[in-house]
Every structure is written in structure tokens, then in C-alpha cells.
Amino acid sequence: MNSALQNIIVSVFGFVASMFTALALWQIEELSGYSIYSFSLWFAIPVGAIACGFVSAAGYYMGAVLFGHRPTRMLLLNMVFISISTFFAIYWLAKLGESGAIGHFGYVTAVLQIVGFAIGGFVMFGYLLGLPYCDKCTKYLSVKSKSIRFSANLEKFTEMVNGIVASFNAGEPQKALVDHQKYGEESNPKGGFICSSLLRKQCSTCGVNWLGFSAHISPKSKWEGQVLKEYKFSQYYGADSGS
């Protein structure tokens, strides 16, 4: 299937998801009197609109994964356009219901919400673009294994990271997988402030692998959501290694 046809098919998925999102948001607003997309921080950051724009672009994710379509510039334009269209679809539905849901926000707020929906589309595009992909088989890689380890020992963590990097550089992914599994603990220990993960994805057709390492170091007393530093690197490798 050529790229142009895939663009059209994936765009149809995006359009359908966008219209369902518009209907759902409108219905929620009609029943509860609250518009999720209008939520903002400090009256300037349209968090709700960004989230709704992201959700409205979810159809592109489904279509792209199903048809193994790598995002293109044309698809980016489609995603942003459809995300913005969701906002206007909600406005149109509100007008049909004579609820006047958007008018009282004013032009400035409406523009911020439109921008928020557009950003949501951009975010979904970036997310798709960052997913491990097999160019040879034109499909996204699927998860084969994931190892998550916790620790409260920074020295051991540094030693483990250096070992993982050395294994990556030496082309020994299996050693990286084994060494990471031996490190730390399966659950977060008392005083733990380090979390690391090693994710392996694989192409279901040719067997090519992708190995991604990530780690978060947080304050000892504030583990939840207080990320100080993040380590992140990844590597593709052949079907005959680390399987």
C-alpha cells in the first residue's frame, strides 16, 4: 500500500475519532454544565484543550499502528487540522442545542482553546514519530519484555548505567538485559529514589529488535513525581541478538 493511500486511510481514522470526541465532550457539557476543554492554568495555558486535542487525534494513532504508517508532514497537517476541527464541531453542536456554550468565554479564550487543540495534535504526531519502527517491514515494533528495577543506592545505579552503556556500545544487548535484571529490586524499597526500566520491542515480521533504557532519579524524601534527572537512550539491533 503506497504512502498516499495510507495517509488517506489514517486520516479517515483520525476524522472519525475527532467527531466522536466532539460528540462526547458536547454531551458531557450538556449533562454536567462543565466543558473539559475550557480548563486552563493561570487563565493562559489551555490544559483541557491540549488534552482534548490529543484525544481527538487518537484515531491517527490507531490507524497508523494498524496500517504501519510512519507519520509524514502531510499527516501532521491533517492531525492539526482535525484537532482544531474538533473545537469547531463542539461549538456547532452547542449552537444547535442553543446552549451558547462558547460565546461567554470571549475571543481571546476561544483562540487559546483553538491553539490548545492544535498543540494536542502536534503532541500526538510527536508521540507517533518517536515510536520504534521497522522501515523494512513498514510496521511499528511490539513490546516483547520490560524490566523495571528500583534502588536507593546511587553508586550501584551509576555502575549499572555504565555497564548498560558499555553493553550497548559493544553490541551485546542480551548482556544489558541480564545485567539490568540483576540490579536493584522489583519493588521500591524504603528510601528508594531511583527507578530504571529496560524495554525491548521487536518487529513481528523480520524480528529486528529495539532496546530502550530510561531512568529517573528523584529526591530521597519525594519519590513521587519529583524527577531531578532522567537518563534515556536506545538502540536497534539484529534479529539474531538478545531474542
Structure characterization notes:
The protein has 243 residues and is an alpha+beta fold. It folds into two domains: 3-131, no CATH class; 139-237, no CATH class. The chain is built from seven helices and six strands, in the order αααααβββααβββ. The chain has a four-stranded antiparallel β-sheet with strand order 3-4-5-6, covered by helices on one side. A two-stranded antiparallel ribbon has the order 1-2. The radius of gyration is 22 Å and the shape is flat.
Report the total helices: 7
Strand order of the largest sheet: 3-4-5-6
Helix content: 40-55%
Tally of DSSP β-strands: 6
| Total tally of structural domains | 2
Q: Which helices and strands appear, and what pairs or packs with what?
A:
Layout: H1 3-32, H2 47-56, H3 58-67, H4 73-96, H5 106-130, E1 133-134, E2 139-140, E3 142-151, H6 154-169, H7 173-182, E4 194-202, E5 209-217, E6 229-237
Antiparallel strand pairs: 1-2, 3-4, 4-5, 5-6
Helix pairs in contact: 1-3, 1-4, 2-4, 2-5, 4-5, 6-7
Brief characterization of the structure:
With 243 residues, this protein is α+β, with helices and mostly antiparallel strands.
Q: What key attributes describe this structure?
A:
single chain; 243 residues; alpha+beta; four-stranded antiparallel beta sheet; 6 strands
